[in-house]
Amino acid sequence: MKTRILSLFFLASLMNALSLHAQHRVTVEDLMEQVKQVYPVSFVYDASIKLDIPYVGKHLDMNSLESALSTLFEHAGIQWEVNGEYVILKKQSSYTLSGYVYQENGETVINATVWDITSHTGTLTNEHGFYSLTLNEGTHKIRFSHIGSGELMEEITLKGNKTKNIWLKSDYQIEEVVVTADLNSPLYTTQTGKVSLTAKDFVSGNNFMSSPDVVKKLQSLSGVASGTELISGLYVHGGNNDENLFLLDGTPLYQVNHAGGLFSAFNTDIIKNIDFYKSGFPARYGGRLSSVVDVRTNDGNMKEYRGSFTLGLLEGRIQFEGPIVKNRTSFNVALRRTWMDLLTAPALAIINSSRRNKQNLRYAFHDFNAKVTHIFSEKSRADISLYSGNDLFKFRHKEYLFDPEPTNVDKFSLQWGNFTASVNWKYIFSHKMFANITGVYTHNQSKFDYLSEEQLGYIEGLMGAIVKEQRNRSTIHDFGYRMEFDYRPNVWNHIRFGSNYMRHLFVPQNYYSKYDDASPNALTDQITSRYRSNEFTLYAEDDLSVGKRVKLNGGIHYTLFGISGTKYHSIEPRAAINFRLCDKVSLKVSYTEMSQFMHQLSATYLNLPTDYWVPSTARITPMKSRQWAAGVYGKLPYGIRWSLEGFYKTMDNLIEYDGSSGMLNPAADRWENEVRIGKGKAYGMETDVSYSNGRTSVDASYTLSWSKRYFPDFYPAWYPDKFDNRHKFSVCISHKFSDRIDAYASWNYRSGNRITLPSQQVDAPVLPGVERTNEGMLVYERPNNVSLPAYHRLDVGINFRKTTKRGFERIWNVSLYNAYCRMNPLYATVQQNPDGTFVGKAHGVFPVIPSFSYTLKF
Questions:
Q1: DSSP 328-353
Q2: 825 Cβ contact list (under 8 Å, min separation 6)
Q3: Biggest CA pair distance of the chain
Q4: pLDDT band at residue 547 using 50, 70 and 90 as cut-offs
Q5: In 19-137, where do the E strands start and end?
Q6: Gyration radius (Cα) of the chain, Å
Q7: Which of 664, 585, 516, 488 is nearest to 135 (CA)?
Q8: Which helix (H) or strand (E) holds 205?
Q9: Which residues contact 422 (CB under 8 A, 6 or more apart)?
Q10: Does the pLDDT of residue 5 top 60, yes or no?
């Protein structure tokens, strides 16, 4: 509480200092007096015109009266006219220009820059492609631009509020578009730790098995630990894997992994934009401690039918979009499916043909996205978005004991996935007010089935058998609404406010077991745990510009979380400040508080489908985090961009499941007694450098960080987290040799993960009545006291492109994962030397992995 009060006091002091700074700045009225000293004129104006406002323009040009007046009143919203010895001032009318920015196919553009060259003011389109810019009456030159979508200049005369929809060309696949100004650059945005990705960021990159992957792309960013090799873990600024909020078109996803983490659940063929936050969270987001991954998908082509088909080693993807009613209604569907099961089935059939014991194995996953968008009018539009993702793993072992029939059979089945649905209605209430109202539904499930039949042989002519059966169902049902309002009263304020509600139904375990040994009484056990909770949030935030050099983002996020037996109230302040030190350098500071009302219980450090989610209860309080971040961001000559950020983060009420019961045993009804409560802290710095000239791109980053935990029931002092990777360095290079060939390479390095190694073994105490064994007791100095060898890997790839006579694009991709075959540690074992000391041995699994894919875009 003391830390929170000091943080808020510091922010209040900083705001007050900015206010005092503004008060002591030169005003328009002060400069009017200077003009009067040079030229014999008097100013005539109505008393309602405010002249004691800060002057934000350039140094006055006193070569002529007209040039001085033009410069003085350029940004003051005042019209002037010289009439003899008098300068007549009139309040200048202001009007609002608003609309959508589209690609030429009718797809809205997120984070597009709308810049008025005349007044040197601008804004960004929001996550729905809408913009609103209030300008003075008159003629303006407006630049609409977006990296990858091109640039368009429009001369617009404002004599009243005006709606103007803009279409940009989106041909980045043929030629990289260099945009002259990007207000979404870290140099201009207010928040620290924000990264925006578009579809072009997945066109050429280092993709495992030639499959573009969202989570693996995020793992390569500074400040993000990747966990174990090829596992889609995300450990942001010292947080845990369950502390990341994944939103798909505003709908939360709980399970984002396929194949144990080899792939994530996002199909990049349908992705439009991703906003990733690792600090400086805006007030509109909440519910997780460490990061926000806001994924927005394409609406669909409004003008013509388009699609793509990709064939890879382990998966295939198909995407198709087009108009249902041209320029009015569109659809977009995408399907991704692996064919591992198609490869393993014939291989196992061949193996089983020569074996007495038969084994069958099947694994498959799919992702299906569908979206329908309809435009009712210029003000009203709606869309329906669906997503289904599912993994299925089956194993069957049949052992023939006697001829012809008696057998032992073991069957194992594991299925997990998500289904989400959202209905969005977007409406422009006025040129300054935009709203998006969404109904959401999320279903997450994990199913586990196990059956063992052990034949005992014939007894008195009857077959005897021992049957063991286990079943478990873990599900989450969420349904509710999101109401988002975007209000831009003037060019200096961008206000967002809204409300969210979610009804949660958690069933962590619906467990059934049976043991039948052919005796009269079979043993059965059944346990079901259910939790119902309500989560209601309100938020408000404002992006405020103070002159030309200072931007503030202040907001508040309130959550009421109710569950049987208790209610939790959480008030989370958010603040961020951007100081423009000069045209090419900015300094940013942010402070955020976050709360999380649900926890993922896991017996291992791997993110497995057998893990389950539970809510905060009367005994287990919500997790809390507080994070400071500050950074310097700038531009260098030759198009080089750089940044240096530091962060300090504390986390309270963290839980760790001790895992003693095993996640497949009926433990969900007593999980509150099998977790430890602790806290964490993380701090460090990260630097990023990037360069692009349209043909060659280079991105490099370095992270120096510490991540620690304190669980007093486990260890009486702070100790390093398992993924406390001290150093992390990555560099990615891509080059376009021609319109037909482009290549890429990346090298990644990080300090090794940590394991716990015993320091010695002592004799166990002799207890009365207990027979002594030769085994001793292991003594541990502290948890995670040993670091595994460093991890490093080189990936390379090349794309060959060809455009057919019919205008179709063919892409052949060939890539190497781990090109120099570094056997990086996947796990470690502990061995005892003859002298009694212990040593850890790391084991690598993944060698160099070649892959290829073929893509046809039509």
A1: TEEEEEEEEEE-HHHHHHHHHHHHHH
A2: 229, 752, 753, 788, 789, 791, 842, 843, 844
A3: 125
A4: confident
A5: 42-44, 78-83, 86-91, 94-103, 113-116, 121-124, 130-136
A6: 31
A7: 488
A8: none
A9: 249, 250, 251, 384, 385, 438, 439, 440, 441
A10: no
